Each structure stands twice: as C-alpha cells, then as structure tokens.
Amino acid sequence: MAWQSAPLSLLNQYRVAHNIQTPPAFSTPYRQAILTNPGIGRQSPTMARKKEKRRISKENLALAVRKNFNGAAVNEIDVVVELVYKVRNK
C-alpha cells in the first residue's frame, strides 16, 4: 500500500487504533510551514511541547505506520475464519 499518498485521517486513525507511539501529523502543509519556520510559530503551544510530543510531518507519520503495518504478524487461519464468518452473517 502507498502510505505516502494515504489521507491524513486514515494515518491518524491507524496510529490511534494500533497505539503507535508517534505524535499526530500537521493537518496541512501550510500549518507545518508556519509552525516550523523561525518566528512566532516556534513559540506556539504546538511547538513548545517536549520534542517527542510535537507534531510531525505526514511523511514521518506514513513511515511509522508503514513500519508498524509491515511488522504486524498475521495468522492466516484466523483471517480466513473471520472472513467466512462475516460473509455468511452479512
């Protein structure tokens, strides 16, 4: 899957659902530019937080999601059983 082109809402939902220890991404590139460039943006509450709690770029969030997704172990038998159950009971 192309995580870089996935919508930001999907990446944030995946981050929350799978409890990835990564802060959320900026909602728009414009906001990222305003808050990361020198000036008043650096003193805003979003950027004055501890470094591990600051917002990150969409690319960094997509990288964290991709690493988590690729590292997830899948039990094929459980997946097939759940698929058959959902198809029959739909």
Automatic annotation (TrEMBL):
User: What species is this protein from?
Assistant: Pseudocercospora fijiensis (strain CIRAD86)
Specify the protein name.
Answer: Histone deacetylase complex subunit SAP30 Sin3 binding domain-containing protein
Reading the lineage from the top rank, the first entry is: Eukaryota
